[in-house]
Amino acid sequence: MKFKKSKKQDITLENDELETQGERKRRLISLYIVHFSMFVVSLGSSIIFTGVYPYLLNLEPEVGLAEYGMVVAADAAAQMVFSPIFGFITDRLKTVRPVALGSCVLFSGGNILYALVGIFPRIGPVTRSRVWIMLAARFIVGIGTAINSTSRYYVSMATKIEERTSHIALLSLFQTLGFIVGPGIQTGLAPLGHKYIPADGGLIFDMYTSTGWIGGISGCLCLILYLPGIFTEKYIAAKELEYKKTHKEAKEAEAAAKETEAANAAAKVKHRKISHMEIGPSIEETKKENPRKLLKSYSRISVVDGAVNFSHLEELEEIEEESEASDDTNNNKKDQKKERKMAPILPTITCTYNNFSFMMNFVLLETIVTPLAMDMWGWTQEEAIVNIGFVMIGGGVLSLFVFATIGPLSKRFNERILLLIAGIIPMILGRVVMFPFPGAGYPPVASGLIPGGGGSNNVTTTTAFDTTAFEDYDYDLVVESVNERAAAIALTTGCGYDWCSEIPKITVAQFMIGYVFATLGYPFCVALNASIYSKVLGDIPQGFWLGLLTTSGSLSRVVGPLVVTGIYENYGTYLTFGLVTGTLVLSGIITLISYKKLVPPVTNH
Predict the structure, then answer these.
(1) pLDDT (tens digit, 9 = 90+) per residue, 106-145?
(2) Which one, of 350, 366, 354, 370, lies nearest residue 527 by Cα?
(3) Per-residue pLDDT tens for 474-510?
(4) Does domain 16-235+345-599 have CATH number 1.20.1250.20?
(5) Which of these, 128, 215, 374, 597, has the minimum number of CB atoms within 10 Å of its CB?
(6) Where are the domains of the chain?
(7) How many CB atoms lie within 10 A of CB 20?
């Protein structure tokens, strides 16, 4: 009696053939090192999010939102350029360690430079030298964060298909937690306070510079994790695909053999009919029948049996032609599999744009959340940093629970449906909720020592602080005036843009509700989009293509700060939130258009 093997038994057998228990343990340890390094790098990068704007004001009191947007975009610009380069190098070297170690060194060095910007003297209010030094520091940090593409490559190549969605979700979870916990640490550093940095420079340790030192230490920790003896690379994706192909080809060969055997048996029967066709009556008939009946038998042969013989020959020719056609079809399929080196176009466009759109919405909060809190609700620098930090900590806890559900849900439901319903739609709702509603009142008018209505971040005064007038003053007097200016900016609260008296404010309740919706949808978006794309790529080298995915996210973090700060400063919140909402709507549309193509190549065959 034969027992049919269950699917679970097949998986267990497959696992035993692919790796031993010891190899599996080392592979999982390496995966969790990559996950943790993603958290460390993200934390070191995001810890400055809420503090970089007031830190920049302390360094250069005359700075505007345009320079602030450039600083925020600098690390993303570096990541955008170097992610595909690092992905290409990883594909060539077939190892992630060199790229990972180099990225950690650059990441640590860039953060330390960020903490030391204050030691450089301020060379006049016009050149704003410290802005450029900070921009360089953030650019170096961005090169280090390009390790993200290498991390995604390793997770894709070191996991089996059944594990991949869960581990890509974990990778996105650690990255998102780093982005959210970082500002929380900045909140915890608020008791250190901030110190006014002298114009001639000095080593300052306060709530802003301490974040740079923490980022540098986290980079060193990441470096240690990737050293030989701690991190051991274990790749299994290619072995699994080869295993599945081998077994699939074996089954196809077995089925083809049975078909061929059946066809040969049928052909033998037909050949036997032809070869044993007797011209005239048989020997037994000649003994039994009389001569008249024998003559009738011979007359029937020429009319009937001759035609039957010819029809058998035609059938044999048809069988041979069908067999040759079947062989040609199988050869063509094998050639197609060998020639598949490029990623499918439509899924690649869809997934890369989706990543761009999702990161654009993340950039919205990353860039303007601190100025928004100061403008909309009249909070001071310290209040904005502390309160927004607590909000992001709460978002991190919520994200933890959301990410934990992605793996189990993806096994029960179609990933594409989850991406649309649990990801994109909540993200859209989160942005729509943040639109200012009539009747909510207007933002508080800017207060402090800034004349001219420039607000807390856009100085338009041309009286006491006219930059062209500094040429006629003694430099020491200029330094003293600028330091007084920094103190004035630190006390400034409220909204001072032209649109502040025309567009209603966003209430705290609106912001919180929208933030919750976005926090619920964002994990599904980034995790499932990356998982779907990795599966669509199949067995082609994925380093470059996953680097391209990271580049799309980096591009949004380059364009986003520049565009968002410009639109927010000049046109207000309606157009700002309308723009990012439009990117999400377009993301939903193209996902629906390419829905049938967002499947692994095995399914297509």
Answers:
(1) 999 999 999 999 998 887 655 678 889 999 999 999 899 8
(2) 354
(3) 434 444 444 444 444 444 567 888 898 889 999 999 9
(4) yes
(5) 597
(6) 16-235+345-599, 247-316
(7) 10
